[in-house]
Write a structure and sequence with these properties.
Helices cover 71% and strands 3% of the residues. It is mainly α.
Length: 540
């Protein structure tokens, strides 16, 4: 751990306010573009499922699309190791210059990729490979940008300065949503045919801009000082994870703040979009618009809570965010359902749907190879209900019994599609959310509340992570727990939560995943995480 200084002490390697602004702007802009590239896939998951996973049923195709989305997160820790090692050995600047080039070219490649209809199975395979290259690049990007900005910042402004880096993920998401929305408008009916490619192809322009900007930056003063003293690590990975004292800090960072922070971020800005469009059947353009408004309102709070952490400490703010997430996720999503699609909320309370069947006759409808047939009456009933966006619960029947579906007081024995559709419609379940019935101000308010929780856990995070580790192994040590938390705990959230909803029929059941993670992180953080805002980053 590093030595303690007073948070308002002079900075020996300071820089002018103009230079500080340039460093923050250049680092943040490049990171915004990189997050834009990475998040485009999430914004277009529904379209991608049709273009690249057309060989399986609709439910499996969407889960496949989410798995390909998660593949980028799966490899992020490996990118953290590869580029973190380079960053600690050759410098921060050139390492995150490499990562943005890799990210931009991979994203541009998705825009050129033929679909499943053109080249068959090769299309999703290549898509997943490109997603993994994106994940490797992002694994090296964040640690470099956060470390670079923090090592330039005055000691008493470290949280505020790195708060701008924390806001880049949300700004990248915002940029991706705006570009997708504009492209939808410009291409109209052709969007799902070829218009979806435009946002990916645009990345080549953003790559050129961000590469030019980053070429003008100078190396981090802390790294320059360490290099001049001959103290650069020869084996950052071994020093980071082979030494128990440092490994212990890595584990605490992962399980106390990174895991919980990750699920708050992806719940607020990805799962909420899937929930609105796939479960509540809201019009995608309307859902994107409301999310954009919420993101614009919430984005400044990443910087605000970074700034506040310079005054009162990092730990109290992050722990408060984890507590709010654990307590309020279920009420907030129930409110979202009520305001976004009141007809579903009303119908499910007045005429709940229950599927009663022999458990052995019902299967978990996920087919990794696209060969299984879900043709039992129970499977067909559940598939139809999921496609209709109808929440249901399950009940066991004795072995060999026919499936029975109750829709309020109406009971249907066996799989009778026309009778089931009629009963669901009569009970008031809509096939799509009525745009006119959406309470837009309240939907924005609920999403804003979710984003505010995420800003509390994420705003001070970069400062904490940089302050936890010494300069010689900082890039490597902070990058791995961050990307395991965000790549695995957070990245798999949409896939796991959506699969749980499909399996149980309970539209809120997927929330157990983020709630358990934030609750666990809260406990570990309260017991194990120490305050870091007064450490000296130049101590090696």
């Amino acid at each position: 751990m590093t030595d303690v200084i007073h948070p308002h002490s002079p900075v020996t390697l300071g820089s002018s306010a103009k230079e500080d602004r340039k460093i923050i702007f250049a680092s943040s802009l490049g990171t915004v573009f990189e997050w834009y590239d990475f998040f485009l896939y999430g914004a277009l998951a529904a379209v991608i499922s049709k273009q690249f996973f057309a060989g399986v049923n609709d439910t499996t195709a969407f889960i496949f699309a989410l798995m390909a989305f998660a593949a980028g997160f799966l490899v992020r820790p490996f990118g953290a190791l590869v580029f973190g090692r380079l960053g600690d050995m050759i410098g921060r600047k050139y390492t995150f210059l490499m990562t943005i080039v890799l990210m931009g070219l991979s994203t541009f490649g998705v825009g050129l990729l033929p679909t499943y209809a053109s080249i068959g199975l090769a299309a999703p395979v290549i898509l997943i490979c490109l997603r993994m290259l994106q994940g490797l690049a992002l694994g090296g990007e964040y640690g470099g940008a956060a470390t670079y900005v923090a090592e330039h910042a005055p000691a008493d402004k470290r949280g505020a300065h790195t708060g701008w880096i924390q806001s880049t993920a949300t700004l990248g998401l915002l940029l991706s949503l705006l570009v997708v929305l504009a492209t939808r408008y410009l291409t109209g009916d052709q969007f799902e045919v070829w218009g979806w490619r435009i946002p990916f192809l645009l990345s080549i322009v953003l790559l050129a801009i961000s590469t030019w900007i980053r070429m003008s930056l100078h190396e981090s003063p802390s790294f320059v000082k360490m290099k001049a003293q001959g103290k650069v690590s020869k084996s950052p990975i071994r020093e980071s994870f082979g030494n128990w004292e440092n490994l212990k800090i890595v584990l605490i960072a992962l399980f106390s703040i990174n895991g919980g922070q990750a699920v708050t971020f992806y719940t607020a800005q990805f799962y909420v979009l899937f929930f609105l469009t796939q479960i509540l059947k809201m019009d995608p353009a309307q859902a994107n618009t409301l999310l954009i408004i919420s993101v614009v309102l919430g984005a400044p709070f990443f910087v605000f809570f970074g700034w506040l952490s310079d005054r009162i400490g990092r730990k109290p703010i992050i722990m408060a965010g984890l507590l709010l997430a654990t307590v309020f996720y279920f009420p907030l999503f129930k409110a979202l359902s009520h305001y976004a699609n009141p007809q579903i909320s009303q119908a499910s309370s007045q005429a709940p749907v229950v599927v009663m069947a022999d458990p052995k006759a019902c299967t978990f409808q996920f087919d990794p190879v696209g060969k299984a047939k879900f043709d039992s009456p129970c499977d067909k009933v559940k598939t139809l209900l999921v496609k209709q966006g109808v929440p249901y619960s399950s009940a066991s029947q004795v072995a060999g019994s026919d499936v029975v579906v109750s829709v309020g007081e109406t009971k249907i024995t066996g799989y009778d599609e026309s009778a089931l559709r009629a009963a669901v419609a009569q009970a008031g379940y809509p096939t799509k959310a009525d745009p006119a019935s959406v309470n837009q101000p309240m939907v924005v308010a609920v999403i804003f509340a979710l984003i505010l929780i995420a800003t509390m856990t994420y705003g001070p995070l970069a400062a904490v992570m940089v302050e936890l580790f010494p300069t010689r192994i900082r890039y490597t040590s902070m990058s791995l727990p961050y990307h395991i938390g965000n790549g695995w705990f957070g990245g798999f959230l949409p896939t796991v939560s959506f699969a749980l909803v499909v399996y149980t029929g309970d539209i809120f059941y997927g929330l157990w995943y983020p709630v358990l993670v934030t609750g666990g992180s809260l406990i570990v953080g309260l017991l194990c995480l120490k305050e870091t805002r007064q450490v000296d980053l130049d101590t090696v």
